[in-house]
Amino acid sequence: MAPAAVAAARPSSVPRAPSPPRHQVRACSLRCAARPGARPGYNHQALYKPSATALSVQRPYCRSRQQGRQPRCSQQTEVASVDDDEACELVRGADVVIGEGDDSVRAHLLEAVKNNNGTGVLLLSDIFGFEDSATRDFAYRVACNGYNVLVPDLFRGNPWRKSLPMDGFEQWLAQHAPARVSGDIDACTRWLLDELTAAGLSKKLGVVGFCYGGGRLLETLARDSQSQNAAFFRAGVCFYGSRMDASLGDRVAAPVLFVCGDGDPLCPVETMRELERRAGICRALVYAGRGHGFAHRPQSVEEDADAEDAFNAMRAWLQDHLLAA
Q1: C-alpha to C-alpha distance for 219 and 7, rounded to whole angstroms
Q2: Which end of the chain is less packed: N or C, by CB atoms within 10 Å?
Q3: E strand or H helix that includes residue 149
Q4: What's the distance, CA 26 to chain centroid?
C-alpha cells in the first residue's frame, strides 16, 4: 500500500466544542475554577457536565493494565514520594466532543489534577481505537505523571475489531481517508492547545502514537514542521509505527523516540534506523525478541518487563524534550 498522504491542509479554524446530544459529555475544559488557596495554573476543580448515561468516570481515577494488578502510575522525580495509590487519585477523565456536526470528533480527555505539569499530550491509538482498554490504561499512566492527555477517535466510531476477518482489513482501512484522519488530528491538536492556553498553562505539546497511530504521528510531525505558524509539538514518542514513510524524517523537526521490537514485521528495524539517520533529534530504541504491541499489550512476564522499560524511556524522553526544553 502506498504511504499515506501527509499534505492535508490544516483547518483554518477549529470551532469550539458544541453542546452535544444528551448521551455525550460536553467538551470539558482544563481551565482552573477559582478556589481559595488554589495554585494558579492548576485545575483543582474540573467543570465536567456528564449526563446520566455518560461512559466516562466523573471522579479522579486510574486503572491497572491487567485485572487484579496494582496500578503502576510512576511519578516524575520531583513527586517520587507520592505512592502509586495516591498517584492514581490524581487523574480525572471525561469523553469530549470537538467540532460541530459532521466534522465533530469524539475524544477522551485525561486531566492531571494535583500534580499537573501544565503540558498536553496527544495520544494516537492503534487500529482498535480510542476506547480500547489497553490504550486507555496507557493514557491513564501518562496522565498520572502530570500530563493532560487527549485520545481522539481516529476512526469516527468504526475501529477495527478482532472478530473481523483479516481479508477485509484493507477494505476497512480504505474507509478512513488519510486527509480526513489528518484533519481530525489537526483539529484535536488545536483544541488541546486552545484549552491549555485558556487555562493559563504551558503551550507545550507532545504526541505519542501506537502502530497505526505511530504512522500518523510521523505524518503529523512532518506537517507540523512545515506549518506557517510556530510548530505545535515539542516532542514525540512513536511505538512500533506501521506503514511509515521513512523519507518524512527529513521534514521532522521535533525530537522523536522510536520504540520497536526486532521481531516486528509491521515496523521493520531498517525503517527505524533510516528515520534515526534522517530526522534531526531522533533515537531508535529496539527491544530484542519483541514483536508488535509489546509496550501497551504485553503478553508475558518478559514482555511486561520490557514494556515497563519502554514506558520509563518515554517518560524520560518527554521530561528532557518537553518539560525541560
Answers
A1: 9
A2: N
A3: strand 148-152
A4: 20
For residue 75, tell me if it sits in a domain: no
Q: How far apart, in Å, are the Cα atoms of 112 and each of 86, 154, 219, 250?
A: 12, 23, 27, 34
Range of the domain at 252: 88-323
| Number of separate domains in the chain | 1
Question: What is the tens place of the pLDDT at every residue in 84-117?
Answer: 455 456 899 999 999 998 889 999 999 998 789 9
Distance (Å) of CA 19 to CA 49, 59, 94, 262: 11, 21, 15, 47
Residues forming beta bridges with residue 148, ordered by sequence position: 120
Q: Tell me the H-state helices in 2-73.
A: none
Which residue bears the cell 469530549?
96
Say how far apart CA 42 and CA 30 lie, in whole Å: 8
C-alpha angle 178/202/20, rounded to 5°? 55
**Within a domain: 65:** no
Q: How far apart (Å, rounded) are the C-alpha atoms in residues 7 and 86? A: 44
Q: Note the residue count of the chain.
A: 325
| 281-to-33, 91, 101, 253, 311 alpha-carbon distances in Å | 38, 31, 39, 8, 19
CA distance 186 to 191: 9
1 domain residue, yes or no: no
- Give the type of residue at 186: D
Q: What is the pLDDT of residues 52-95, one digit of tens each?
A: 222 233 333 344 333 333 334 433 333 333 444 554 568 999 99
Residue 6 maps to a domain: no
Which amino acid is it at 231? A
- Condensed to tens digits (0 to 9), the pLDDT of residues 223-249 reads 988 775 566 899 999 999 999 999 999
What span, in angstroms and rounded, lies between the C-alpha atoms of 207 and 183? 16
What CATH number is associated with residue 220? 3.40.50.1820
Quote the cell numbers at residue 239.
511505538
Q: Does residue 209 contact residue 215 with C-beta atoms inside 8 Å?
A: yes
Is 239 strand, coil or helix? strand
Cα separation of 60 and 41, whole Å? Answer: 18
